């Protein structure tokens, strides 16, 4: 490729559009072609980006951030493409002005979408930013065709907008960094770098400026790198959105909606994992099965809403009393379950005592003539007894102990 | 090398590298789901194979490696689709790769002419692409989604574009060199594939994404154990039925009789089995338009749009009979039974009010001796 890098004095000469059918003579204006191909590739890519961002919007219409992103991508695609039909005509400066404004507006819109995605409000600041950027991008044209000023103003506007976007993505929503977010940040760096380099080179050398130089450096800076950046940032954005959807799905699949504790399926998984670890390390594992006493009467006398509130209170109480490393879940109905890795029978009994007292301290639901209480069944496995296939057995033991505690008068615990 | 094709192929190369990065990101985000692993491998293989000429690797060996790599990438993508739609990876993929390896290798050794090699490669691409289009179009039998349409459409456009290029050059007798600056070559070999490869990869993500969203929605609205609506989704459906206009709406609240004793004597697992069996019986005996959900514990609820109290009563009687006909679980003293409370919409009634009416009727049915239905 190095052999093809050459500067041509005629760069920027009026472009003669190709004649359909490939009969055009390539000799005279061949030098224009490289920049042309680069810019066409850029436009094609941005159009693809706009198309798939629209696809994302259709697939996830409920989230308004996808609408902002779709509009942003469409604006950038329009901005990149609009100068084409007007090349070599008197309207080209206007088209370039419209194009740069559309790109800048697209970036601000992107930032807006990011704020919405991360759950932050935008407010009137967004419109001021949009206005400021429009002025910044439009001023050089109002002052006449001043290419240097235009390029520097454009670089400034893009730098501010991209800086804002990167800041949003960097901050995220407080969650740990993800692949998608890293890709987006890297992509915007790739997009911004060439624009700044080009503006600096222009300011430093006062070189002639035109979008149509075939210098490989120009083509790379002006078209190919922004093309890569634009593509990467948008796929990164889609990926980021997707990561969140997967997280939400995993949360829903593994948590109980009412109490926000693990659900039964997740508890089975966690219990098996704990038993597996116990078999390897030789440390014990305890399982506590907990049932709220006479819960049916809460539902029947006070209604389901009050019953739900009581379950919620018990759940919070259990979660608060557990040690770090204990895993608390709702087994269904009024039954809870705690897996304690590393706890032997004595540790589990101490925890059980604590839970009994803590639940007794919960303020009884208004209208209930008694305090809430629980019964606990405990089972412990250790050493050769452990292993993931022992989960069912451990559970049966705890269930029998729980039944025993119920038979013995409730509000107590029993070890199986 | 001429300028135009070089720039275009550089653009394609850059896009391919981006796509490979992104597909790998999808693989990580999807918790290393096997199908996304195949897609990531595919993007990397196609990325390497299709940019090899860029690095000057255009000798016989380079072309052979590039052909095999690109075809393997296509096969990997297809295998990913197989897995995604719940089918086993097809063995045809192995044949394609093996055929490509042996065929192109043999052709390169036997002849200096490029034409047979180009034709063999084109044939493999046509077969591979057609398999991908068919797989994405067929899907798993569910209606076509944006993502699947995007994948099938992109590959179809890519296929047509390559075919048109081949026909154009064969008929015109012009040399079909990949480095030709002929606009038809640049457009059909680089710019159209640039667009389609981006759209195909993002279409793949959207396809995967749409399934994840559907699963998420199902999890959020369905009860894990019985696979029917959960309480929140049921309330939403009930409110929607009431808001749909001044039409009849009936609500059946159903409670399993003496369920506690099932749990206590047979254990929770048997109890779960009973709940699942009853849920299945209830949904099997409802009409298409009825909405059935689990209210929590051993309580179920059915919302019947366009149904007045007498019709709901008929349905309730049918349900009572159906549950009574269920086989009794081993070790249980009494057969399974349910009690039903029926409430019909009255002018101005809201969802909560309707449910409270049904709850009172259910309580009455319980106190009247269970195993019966009472209308509020």
Account of the 3D structure:
The complex is a heterodimer of chains A (416) and B (376). Chain A is of the alpha+beta class and 416 residues long. Chain A folds into 2 domains: 2-253, Rhopdopsin 7-helix transmembrane proteins; 264-415, Reverse transcriptase/Diguanylate cyclase domain (Alpha-Beta Plaits), CATH 3.30.70. Helix content of chain A is 62%, strand content 8%. Chain A is built from 12 helices and 5 strands. Chain A has a 5-stranded mixed sheet with strand order 2-3-1-4-5, with helices on both faces. In chain A, strand 2 and strand 3 (335-341) form a beta hairpin. In chain A, helix 1 packs parallel to helix 7, helix 3 packs parallel to helix 5 (147-171) and helix 5 (147-171) runs antiparallel to helix 6 (179-205). With 376 residues, chain B is α+β, with helices and mostly antiparallel strands. Chain B has 2 domains: 3-221; 231-375, 2-Layer Sandwich (Alpha-Beta Plaits), CATH 3.30.70. Helix content of chain B is 66%, strand content 8%. Chain B has helices spanning 3-29, 34-51, 60-84, 92-110, 115-138, 146-172, 183-221, 231-243, 259-266, 268-284, 309-324, 351-367, and strands spanning 249-256, 291-296, 299-305, 338-344, 373-375. Chain B has a 5-stranded mixed sheet. In chain B, a hairpin with a 2-residue loop joins strand 2 and strand 3 (299-305). The interface between A and B is large, with 71 and 65 residues.
